[in-house]
Amino acid sequence: MTADGRLSLNQATVKRLGVPEAVALCARHGIGAIGLWREPVAELGLAAAAAAVRAAGLRVSSLCRGGFFTHADPAARAAAAADNKAAIAEAAALGAGTLVLVSGGLVPGSRDIALARRMIADAIGELVPVAQAHGVRLGIEALHPMFAADRCVITRLGEALDLAGQFPADAVGVVVDTYHVWWDAALAADIARAGKRIVSYQVCDWILPLPADPLLGRGHVGDGYIDFPPISAAVAAAGYAGDIEVEIFNEDVWAAPPDETAKKVRASFPLAF
Amino acid sequence: MTADGRLSLNQATVKRLGVPEAVALCARHGIGAIGLWREPVAELGLAAAAAAVRAAGLRVSSLCRGGFFTHADPAARAAAAADNKAAIAEAAALGAGTLVLVSGGLVPGSRDIALARRMIADAIGELVPVAQAHGVRLGIEALHPMFAADRCVITRLGEALDLAGQFPADAVGVVVDTYHVWWDAALAADIARAGKRIVSYQVCDWILPLPADPLLGRGHVGDGYIDFPPISAAVAAAGYAGDIEVEIFNEDVWAAPPDETAKKVRASFPLAF
């Protein structure tokens, strides 16, 4: 399979489309896989969403997302566990092999980052048997350190990998997202170390200036500062041969006509190799 | 010396003051040290600035800053080298033992982050004999990864330390700035490994939301998310016993009356321990 055949459109890139419209867009543009999000899946209904992707012959490269494990209140932690178990079942129903985890920021009311990290490890441990029972792998995603306080205290691929390594490889892996990890001097070494633990590879570019909401500062591949080819080569050398998602959170991209976005995604994808 | 006696006001915290006003502010508030910046020093004149701090009995904890070594044009690299040599001489004249280095982002026109890192190592190597001749130590500062593209490709304390370790310890050390490194799971280990290579410790807080200019999003100690006491304890255990700078880039802080800022800095400083 060429790299082009491994292109997956993460639904967040065309955030304003529902599942049927996003699926149709992929079909129209010859994109063979899609990364789904739970909210639009729920909006359509799980069974209908699963039927839509199957009818279109699309692979589901991942389901986004589980996580947000860090809560001071035990009841909130239990609710997060239940919600993540539901997400695993949804991933299985959709035929997604990977559930992406955004693990959570500091515990509200606490500055103890080690506490947040322990809470995440405990929560993932509880999900392992559920993931194994459903044949879904949990993908721990390291987020850029600018999100450490409020979204994810797991800030480097190496850290995600150390965490994943505490659990069986058939249940827990890591996500490599170029936007979050491109700056890391240890990236190549950590990708090599990750090997078969890589369960998702997502690409988008780092552009400047950062927008008012730093969550929405991502660019199309090639529009920014990231040197993709060495990263993609390292991911391939590590043994990852799955779909490669283009996931872009950006108000301008969302405002563009989806067919233009799909064309741009297809056209820029080869720049990642 | 108590921690309180080690408080240094980095001049950037009261950016609108010239050297004489900043020195007088420190004297008025019983702050025994100051971190100076080259631009206001040049505005007053080097000799006059040195005389002002000496007359007030202030220690000069550091001079900010050198660096910005990454240029595509050899002439620009040579100019940066010359400017950094001048900065070393200025630090010596001011009695500052440390020149803080912000090393530079990607080389303009290139996405090769390894190239930028090699260029920085080469540039620092050229400065080593000059630093030794002047009795000044170069402090490599790891900047937060959100500045990797445009300001500093050295993004972690461990990376700064690996770089510093290529050179003699009397010439090159590392700066620990809480704002830039607080999120790093390896921080405690890297501080311990740094030991006597730590040549500056700077504190300010991570606050949210990030402002439009992410350079200016720093908060007073205690106003944000950073858990200072374990970091300060690790820095002390590593053997650093020098001044501790409060360095806050923030438009609101700059707009406040300097005496109010100095009071707030003094009052919040104990929260860092």
Residues in helices of chain A, as a percent range: 40-55%
Low-pLDDT stretches of chain A: none
Total count of helical runs of at least 4 residues of chain A: 11
Described by the principal axes of the CA atoms, the overall outline of chain A is: globular
Number of extended strands of chain A = 10
Order of strands in the sheet with the most strands of chain A?
1-2-3-4-5-6-7-10
Gyration radius of chain A, in Å: 17 Å
The most extensive interface between chains reads: A-B, 31 and 31 residues
Can you tag this structure with a few keywords?
homodimer, 273 residues, alpha/beta, two-stranded antiparallel sheet, 17% strand
Walk me through the structure.
Two copies of one chain form a homodimer. Helices cover 42% and strands 17% of the residues of chain A. The model of chain A has no long low-confidence stretch (mean pLDDT 97). Chain A is of the alpha/beta class. The two termini of chain A are 14 Å apart. In chain A, helix 2 crosses helix 3 (46-55) and helix 8 packs parallel to helix 9 (228-237). Chain A has an eight-stranded parallel beta barrel with strand order 1-2-3-4-5-6-7-10, surrounded by six helices. Chain A has a two-stranded antiparallel sheet with strand order 8-9. The interface between A and B is medium-sized, with 31 and 31 residues.
